[in-house]
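In the previous chapter we treated chains in isolation. Here, by contrast, the input contains two separate entities that must be folded as one system, with a combined length of 226 residues.
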Amino acid sequence: KAGVTQTPRYLIKTRGQQVTLSCSPISGHRSVSWYQQTPGQGLQFLFEYFSETQRNKGNFPGRFSGRQFSNSRSEMNVSTLELGDSALYLCASSSVGTGSNTGELFFGEGSRLTVL
Amino acid sequence: SQQGEEDPQALSIQEGENATMNCSYKTSINNLQWYRQNSGRGLVHLILIRSNEREKHSGRLRVTLDTSKKSSSLLITASRAADTASYFCATDEYDYKLSFGAGTTVTVRA
């Protein structure tokens, strides 16, 4: 089985621009989560989607948004980029179902965003 | 916000030695998981221990969980250079997400 695929792997943007990151989960996985990783804040939860529904959202401003498509692929968008948005954005998929428990997460290699 | 606190922040050991790291958390959990991350890459799942389990083994890994103390430990036995990585504990609080600790950076010297 192919793993979780994230694109692009690296990108450089300037303040005020917006960015869209893409994630293709492992085939059959319906849950997709996004995390932001920075040296100062560590791994912070952004959102989780299951069957196109957002089930939880982390404590991030409204500039951060996401969505999931019917094929379980997911995108996240950050508008009006700030310097502090520079981070490694990690997507993870899971085979868990409708229950609220979180099982093993399978992570992609991440999208490294640099904001200048 | 981070649920888990890990100790130590960094650990340097000789190849063949054991490495132990600890994780403390604050609220009730469904399960606790450990992940490894090699520099700047994605996280890899190592082991999951449920709240009703006290100890679990997987290869050279041994994880313990003490829910009364809200703490867990990860032991890596007979370490190898390839074990050099950051290790994170993560807790599942029944809310569709994992809360990660700050991580322990392990360096295994040849």
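Chain B has no helices and eleven strands. The radius of gyration of chain B is 13 Å. Compare these points with the single-chain example from earlier in the chapter.
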